[in-house]
Design brief:
Helix content is 16%, strand content 41%. The protein is of the alpha+beta class.
Length: 394
């Protein structure tokens, strides 16, 4: 008889295997998911810029869900399921500077939950200095002469530590840095430039060490190189850009419109610029050659006089639309310098204001100059652009 085999031993062996299996099953039933490789590391300092928070989640049973909270606020992480039991979890955010607490809770199909908590320091979002209002604008074409080179720089998170600007590799005057966060530092340098290509390069560094660069270019044109599309007026330190520059030059220039007193800006959906004697407005809905319009400054400043009862005679030009007429030097000037398109209709007859003979139009005020000597200088235009601009900014 083989003493190595016994029914009792066999039963005991099977029983042992069963017990081990049941214990293993029970143990597995109690095993929760695990969370490893959490980033950024606990207690570490994240690099400047958006922070990626991530971890690996593994389960002895299939995974069902992962919840993430940052500073007690629930977020929706991105889950990459490599298998039903191995997930990679991540979430990216431009967290503010300071300490942040993260909690991840992994849940498997049995309902077993495993939390994991850690904290780290965020350096803050990467936000380098910004630049604004480069002058002259990129691609501008200017005549030879004085040019104002200007640029503003600022940082939204720290004050500026340095701000340098170069013209064709030659350093320009360093501006006085503004001390406050988000306060603009503007560099302005005037140069007399000859025809050629010019490149401007700028660099700004803030108190957090963030660095930004900017560059643009413009051209000074010489004889035979076409018309400029940009004009600079040193008297007021203002630029006039396309399409206003061409309109100013081709329709009377300084005597009719005066010097620019503001930069161009957006107003009620239109690009607008104020001059001593006019307000230019660009209407993009019109054909390209008609987009520059003149504001009705005369109408805004002066109430029309009552219309005449009848036309005053054949020697005067009568306008039925307003019931007023034009004659003499004013009529000659009106007809020879743009007429209705530039000046509009008359709002008054010739009247006396402050000891001078004047006449109001929708877009202008004519003033008689007794020292004109019977020339075109008999008529001057009042600076109603400046008057209306100052009035609107009180």
């Amino acid at each position: 008889m083989d003493r190595g085999f016994s029914p009792l031993k066999a039963m005991l062996g099977l029983l042992a295997i069963g017990v081990v299996g049941v214990l293993g099953f029970l143990i597995l039933q109690g095993v929760k998911p695990t969370i490893k490789n959490a980033q950024p590391l606990n207690g570490s300092k994240a690099a400047k810029g958006p922070v990626t928070i991530s971890a690996e989640v593994r389960g002895e049973a299939n995974l069902q869900a992962v919840r993430m909270r940052i500073d007690s606020k629930s977020v929706e992480p991105v889950i990459k399921a490599n298998s039903e039991r191995f997930w990679e979890v991540s979430y990216q955010s431009p967290l503010p500077k300071g300490q942040h607490d993260v909690e991840i809770v992994a849940v498997d199909v049995r309902g077993r939950e495993q939390p994991y908590r850690w904290r780290f320091q965020a350096t803050g979002p990467s936000d380098p200095p910004k630049f604004a209002n480069p002058l002259p604008r990129n691609g501008s074409r200017l005549p030879a002469g004085d040019v104002l080179i200007s640029l503003a720089a600022f940082s939204e998170l720290a004050s500026l530590n340095s701000f340098t600007i170069k013209l064709n590799d030659a350093k320009l005057n360093a501006p006085e840095l503004r001390p406050r966060i988000n306060e603009r530092t503007t560099t302005k340098t005037r140069r007399a430039l000859t025809p050629g290509q010019y490149r401007v390069e700028a660099e700004a560094i803030d108190g957090d060490g963030e660095r930004a660069t900017y560059q643009w270019a413009f051209t000074i044109i010489g004889p035979g190189q076409g018309d400029p599309d940009t004009l600079f007026f040193k008297e007021t330190d203002q630029y006039v850009f396309a399409p206003f520059a061409a309109y100013w030059s081709k329709n009377g220039g300084l005597p009719l419109f005066g010097l620019p007193i503001t930069p161009d800006f957006e107003r009620d959906g239109r690009t607008t610029q104020w001059f001593e004697r006019a307000r230019f407005e660009r209407n993009p809905q019109l054909p390209a050659d008609q987009q520059t319009q003149l504001g009705l400054l005369g109408t805004e400043l002066r109430k029309p006089d009552p219309p005449l009862a009848a036309s005053p005679g054949t020697d005067r030009l009568f306008f039925t639309q307003t019931g007023h007429s034009l004659g003499g030097a004013f009529r000659t000037y009106w007809q020879s310098h743009g007429g209705l398109a530039v000046f509009g209709l008359p709002l008054t007859e010739e009247i006396t204001e402050d000891g001078r003979t004047v006449q109001w139009f929708e877009r202008a005020r004519f003033e008689f100059n007794p020292q004109g000597g019977g020339t075109v200088n008999d008529v001057q235009l009042g600076q109603i652009g400046r008057t209306r601009w100052e009035q609107s900014n009180r």
